[in-house]
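Section 5.1 Outputs to date
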Amino acid sequence: MTVARISWLRLCAALFAATVLFGSSAAWSQPFPNKPIKLIVGFPPGGGSDAAARLLANALASKFGQPVVVENKAGANTIIATEFVKSQPADGYTLLFVSASFAINPSLYKLTYDIEKDFTPVGLVALVPLLLITNAESPAKSAGDLVAMAKKDPGKLTYASFGQGSAAHLAGELFLSMTGTQMLHVPFKGSAPAVTEVLGGRVTMMFPGVGSGLSLAKEGKLKGLGVSTAKRIAGAPEIPTVAESGVPGFEISTWESVQAPAGTPPDVVAKINAAMKEVLATRELREKLIAIGLEPDGTKNPAETAAFVKSEMQKFAKIVKDRNIKVE
């Protein structure tokens, strides 16, 4: 092979390497996002968290000009979904859409992850008020009436939840703790069967997510005695808070947030947070979230979201410890 031929081949190789390097650099320099984003939900399709995730995903897809795909990885009170997202690249393309279970689980389970060390909070989506419900034929007209009934017959009344360690379970225990009453906890696998038992009068009361009980309360099929948040909710301003209804100081709720794997670039986290704030400020998305029983937030930056999650974790941990709550 001639010297000229060798030189020509070396030149071609150098040009090829430069092209590959330039192409790779150009790909990395493209603004985020330049491919579809996955939003992982720890509950099955059709539930409140899934519905909220899909509403947010559609809004973000329009904002980013890239698909935002919801994937359901249900099981173990959102632990399966959380473990999956932890294992994914920290590049902003796989995000966790998760409820208050994210902050409850550390107090109840031996986890393979640390929610503060292994995740970067992106933003809060909405608060999810709980609704204190009882059977339509119940003599109780307020939370205070339920307290009086429970004190009259200690241990004879019951309260349902959508699972041990769920927000509904902890809300019930907080209610008992603050009122000095005793009731039997009856856990169910999901909100629907639990609400059905309250409708039938076989369980005294429950704290489901407001979206699971509000329409039934408005139809008169059960009684909505109070919402669990500090303020009345936009979707039902006629229903008092539990605090107004006889248990002063009572406040608890679940919520929906977006989390990213630890190590996700701060500029990517900031961009997603800014997009969330923008879409959650729109009338269209807010009305859709309110219609399914959520109170849209979207005002917190990543640092404020981290502080919120930490405070919630501490609050739930106190309830678990004070009430000696165990899960099987």
